[in-house]
Fold this protein.
Amino acid sequence: MSQDWEIAIQRTINNNVPRVHKILENHKYILDLAKKLREAKMRVLSDLETYVEQTLEAVKRTGGNAYFVNNAEEAKEIVGKIVGKGKIVVFGKSMVAYELGIRKYLQQLGNEVWETDLGEFLIQLADEPPSHIIAPAVHMTKERVAKLLKEKLGFDVSESSSHEELVQKVREFLRNKFLSANVGITGANAVAADVGSIVLVENEGNIRMSTVVPPVHIAIVGVEKIVPTLEDALIEALVQAAYAGLYPPTYINVTSGPSSTGDIEMKRVSPAHGPKEFHLILVDNGRLKASKDPILREALLCIRCGRCHLHCPIYRVLDGSWGDAPYSGPMGAMWSYIIYNDYKPALYCTHSGNCKEVCPMKINIPRVLEYIKYMGNKQRSDK
Amino acid sequence: MLGKLIYDYLQKYSFPYPIDKKICSGWAKDLPSKGETILYTSCMYQTASLSEVYSKFIPYAEKLSPLSFLGRFIKPSKDEIERAYRILNKIAQLLKRNGINFAYLYEEEPYSGAILLELGYLDEFGQYAKSVYNFFKNKGIKRIITVDPHTHNALSRYNEFVEHFDLEIVSYLELVKDVKGVNREETFVIHDSCLYSRFLNLRDVYRDLINKSGIKIVEDELITGVDTSFCCGSPIKPINPDLSDKIAKARVEQLSKLSKNIIVVCPMCYANLSKYGNVKDWIEVVE
């Protein structure tokens, strides 16, 4: 365990864990919402292809473009065609885009690309894999962040700069990028199959700007994020924020196709001030296969709150490198298998059970990892 | 394959690695060997200290087979074995004091299969569970009293692999009442067993016992909470002994912030944590 990691993770736990306990104690309705959400997500996962079709059709009804892709290559081809070359692209954080290698691909095509989520921005600057699903730079101490910003971008900061000063400097830098961006790319916390809306929950305001300021918005989303209705999608945003310890969330964004107005004779016209194009790319990359397996299906319930990470002894003692990026921690050990067919991270599970205890979706993560260990053992013996 | 090797050892020695079974049974002398209720140790307390030695052999497991006779010479130290025997005798006495009659299978006692389960060798575990179940049935056993969480967990999972599983599995913790702390002056901190605490619903059972014994327990939301308390690192030892040690060290550092006296309820937790701090099995601090 490096000293930096030890300090950073301990500060994070002290800041986050008691806060989540308090949020859940003070807002008990979230427990009911989480239960309802699990049921809704399970309905989708039991018949995922049908819900994918329903979602694609619903997005088209709102004037958006919708695609289903099997893998990274297909996703890159579509994103490359939409973005082209020589553009400025702002990312509003998408772990699925990271999974598919979209940022680096767009850079290779000759685009200027910026992550705008602060954690992901730091990851981009350091050229390191994320160490946590919602706080990608959780492995960096404040002091290291200051050093990084000074070295890479020449910011006038030092190791004694406050958290506030560091955030302010990044804000000034990124504001120009938002205003000149041609394309905004985000993920989604949830996609509503009934109306084709995507829901994003955030605190920084970077997602809001990435989805509204550039003339083109692309959302790249795993198919497991589909929920039956917009109501379920909004519930997912609330539950995710609460279990991440960021409740109430500063912003919940709903995007349903390109911008529009109904102000002249109440006729709905598109575009208005926001993007003139909206593209939703639904990604399989191993998810559909997993949805057919009654045990692996559980992993697809994950809402990426990142709570399991901070309660896991392995994650805490290793330096955030457990799992295949961007999927770290206990959830990452499950997702490493689903996406990359890598069973090795699962072998590290000590079945401490803290992860299942805190998971809002009640995923019995140790049991899923036990199954992945089993599948891995079988793979090895077949060789 | 490691799973196959362990399975073969289980067939041959009724244990995951070669061992002299007298080590397992040496603690008991006056217990009946037949009865519907048995006290079942699965040789966990007796051999917990050997996990260190055997985890180092795991990378060479496939080549180990011809050297298996060496295992018969690997034994826990005199102190370790005496301590394990004292604990098991005390558990037996407490059960008797609470009016529980039981038999013990001595050298016939099979291992539970826990390691196969925990390493994800589910086919081998299922197959082994069936053979152990049949063994118990042929002995006329109806009720099994376990003494450690790994064994209790393994037996509790037998019903997933054995059709019409009908044995009662009960922890001695559920049968023991009214113990008295031997040291009521100093404070103690509990390192919970992950399995008891979060899988087997026994966390409150031993906490109540300890609290009622008069022993002063210190708690902290971030160190001893149900969803925050750490693992001892023992289950990862066969995969990565260094990581196992790092976890144990980190755990003892956390616990020591609350008290230098650490209580455990699992022999594997003791084996892993006691290198770094003053650790005792809870049974050693009550009478």
Summary: Chain B touches chain A through 35 residues (CB under 8 Å). The two ends of chain B are 45 Å apart (CA to CA).
